[in-house]
Amino acid sequence: MEFRLPELGEGVTEGELIKWKVKEGDIVKDDQPICEVMTDKATIEIPSPFSGKIKQLVAKEGEIVKVHQLMVVAEVAGGAAAAATHAAPAAHSAPAAPAPVTATAPAKAQTSNSNDVLASPATRKLAREKGIDLGVVAASGPHGRVLLQDVEQALSGGGATGGVAKSRTFSSGEVERTPIRGMRKKIAEKMRQSKDKAAHFTYVEEADATELVKLRAQAKAIAEKRGIKLTYLPFILKAMVAALRQHPRLNSTLDEASNEIITHHTYNISLSVQTEDGLTVPVVKHVEQKSIFELAREIADLVDRARKKKLVMEDFQGSTITLTNAGSIGGLFATPIINYPEVAILGFNKIFRKPVVINKGGKEKLAIRDWTYFSISMDHRILDGAEAAEFMKTFVSYIENPSLLLLESL
Predict the structure, then answer these.
(1) β-bridge partners, 201
(2) How many other C-beta atoms can be found within 10 angstroms of the C-beta atom of residue 84?
(3) Fewest CB atoms within 10 Å of the CB: 14, 132, 279, 329?
(4) H-run or E-run covering 219
């Protein structure tokens, strides 16, 4: 039988073969991981849809493989009948990305054969583990695709894993050469694309974070009793939403194909997470609908799964603006690179104690305050310097007076 690269996710037409987990001559079982493929968003572990013997590994490590491209030739247990059952769809041109729709009702898959249903490997794996027939799951994705959340809704739980293979290094004398592959390659491509496309400019503002530090200290004690690790990030996210509501053009993405600015009225904020394989940016969705403690739980889950290489495609989709945080490492401020096609990225830096001149009632006095800097990079094709300054003025007002966030939630 021939095994071809399956559908990897909405709009994904290819991936880089990072690592084979099997070799020619190996006997594999159904659902056994056989390789790792890196897409634009995540590394996906591809499970075997058959039981049998690997006769030939057609694709090579480091190769860019198209969806439905031949990957493996195998001798399947059970002969021709089994081969027919497990064969992937025949190769054809990759489908164009679906046009956006304003509203839709979940579509019913038109088959009871799970192998014929449009679904990612992670979705298929979850369905197999839980004994769910994808052919009878209500599909909410484009073109009748069954998404991971569709299966989770059907059984109220589940998950899937992915990983990133480490690059091999080659030493010679006093130098070491490391192939640029996997996540580092995708980071390089995304950064180059962003710098080539967007006209970057960065605006920096300082903030008195004393009241924020006090509020977080009070809330942290409550959070610990609930088993929640509370950082500053949930407060920063809520302050971003409050400011973005007053400056909505920053919560936009650029559609260059139609030459349109898409202003979003939901707030899906990507978070930069540093892992041993590089920087990744999973999305916290609908920040406006969640409490500080709910956001803390979700952030902890995303960071944990990012570092354990268990993020899935759905974790990277739908971002409208990005927050990058280097505060735990140090530094006053940075000039972050836009997560294209978004038009803005906010940088949160370290909070530190410093003496500040405070003016109260016309009298100046010296006080020790908790201080920080925020830096925002924007696409100057879409946003002007005045918009950056006005947004930061509004945003900093919520950082300096975090109790105002309570009013925003009412």
Answers:
(1) 378
(2) 11
(3) 329
(4) helix 210-225
In sequence order, the 6+-apart residues with CB closer than 8 A to the CB of 181 are 16, 18, 38, 62, 165, 167
Candidate list 143, 247, 264, 380, residue with the active-site label: 380
CA distance 183 to 189: 10
Q: How far apart are CA 272 and CA 322, in angstroms?
A: 8
Distance CA 345, CA 336 (A): 7
H helices of 282-336, where? 292-307
Q: List all residues 6 or more positions away from 315 whose beta carbon is below 8 Å from its beta carbon.
A: 42, 282, 283, 302, 305
**Mode of pairing for the β-strands spanning 269-271 and 321-325:** parallel
- Number of C-beta neighbours around residue 182 at 10 A: 23
Beta strand 273-275 pairing with 278-280: antiparallel
Q: Count of alpha carbons within 13 Å of 125, Cβ hemisphere only?
A: 21
What pLDDT score was predicted for residue 230? 96
Q: Is 380 a catalytic residue?
A: yes
Q: Tell me the average confidence (pLDDT) per consecutive run of 10 residues in the chain, 410 residues long.
A: 84 86 93 86 82 94 92 78 39 31 35 56 76 77 70 60 42 74 81 93 96 96 95 96 97 94 96 86 95 96 89 89 84 89 95 92 92 96 95 97 80
SS3 15: strand
3-state secondary structure of 78: coil
Q: What is the pLDDT of residue 73?
A: 95
| Cis peptide, bond prior to residue 341, ω within 30 of zero | yes
Q: Check if the beta carbon of residue 347 is closer than 8 Å to that of residue 375.
A: yes
At 138, list the tokens. 């209500």
Pairing outcome for strands 344-348 and 321-325: parallel
Closest Cα to residue 389, out of 349, 397, 334? 397
Which residues lie below 8 Å from residue 349, measured CB to CB, with a gap of 6+? 326, 327, 331, 332, 333, 334, 372, 373, 374, 375
**Which residue, among 77, 36, 21, has the nearest Cα to 53 in the 3D structure?**
77
Which helix (H) or strand (E) segment holds residue 255: the answer is: strand 252-255
pTM of the complete model: 0.66
